[in-house]
Amino acid sequence: MQYRDGHMVHSYFEHELGLHWSDDFRGVLYVPDKYVNQMAEQQHVVVAVAYNAFIGRTCCMHSVIKRPEAVTRKMVRETFEFPFEVCHCEVVMALVDSTNKAALRFDTRLGFHEAARIRTGGTDGDLIVLEMQRADCRWIKSNLH
Prior knowledge:
This protein is α+β, with helices and mostly antiparallel strands. It has a single domain, classed as Aminopeptidase. It has helices at 6-17, 73-86, 101-110, and strands at residues 2-3, 26-30, 47-55, 58-65, 91-97, 113-118, 127-133. Strands 1-2-3-4-5-7-6 form a 7-stranded mixed beta sheet, sandwiched between helices. Helix 2 links the parallel strand 4 and strand 5 (91-97).
């Protein structure tokens, strides 16, 4: 089940990542289907994805994955369809602290690669700027062969 209410989603990201509100903030929370017709709470979220900083043909993607086994190909496809297909971005960025090895491995497996590194810019280490070009995204239908 998905929740797309902007303030509810932002509240989650503010709590988890300290992400500040912006007028271009958009996102989705994935919770188990057993919460249909109920108000899911933060502890029920298994995967969360958000976007902001829409500048030119670029946006920044943020994610929190509490249960990696809950990630589905459909979720991943939807995650990239939004910025590339709906918003017509050409580049999606992700900002990851260099000490977050699990996130770096996961993002690299998705197809991101390091574009820049800001020394001591992360919460605990360097801030790694990852990027995915639309042309390199294997998750969107227009790129599937």
